[in-house]
């Protein structure tokens, strides 16, 4: 898995590439929590290159979402592949997150 971030105008884009599975979820969570702590403003997670997400990946996103909500900041997800979007729909996470 690869994680990159880029500051754009009033928000930060976090690009994730690979699998958000049990092996990589903790690394993703730590990276995202660091970004939340260190970078002000909204965050958009570009998931266009995520080809698989497990429950551990969903959990990492949920933790990040709660941190952003507590800080009164916006977190959105973008570029979900159809099979990843289906996981969000089935699990109910599509109603928890703003998906653009």
TrEMBL record:
Gene3D superfamilies: STAS domain (3.30.750.24). Pfam families: STAS. InterPro entries: Anti-sigma_ant, STAS_dom, STAS_dom_sf. Residues 1-100 form the STAS domain. Belongs to the anti-sigma-factor antagonist family. NCBIfam families: ant_ant_sig. This is Anti-sigma factor antagonist.
């Amino acid at each position: 898995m690869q994680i990159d971030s880029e500051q754009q105008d009033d928000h930060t884009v976090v690009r994730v590439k690979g699998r958000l599975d049990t092996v990589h979820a903790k690394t993703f969570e730590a990276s995202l929590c660091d970004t939340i702590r260190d970078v002000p403003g909204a965050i958009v997670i570009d998931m266009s290159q995520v080809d698989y997400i497990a429950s551990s990946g969903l959990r990492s996103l949920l933790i990040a979402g709660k941190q952003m909500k507590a800080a009164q900041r916006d977190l959105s997800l973008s570029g979900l592949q159809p099979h990843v979007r289906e996981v969000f729909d089935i699990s109910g996470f599509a109603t928890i997150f703003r998906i653009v």
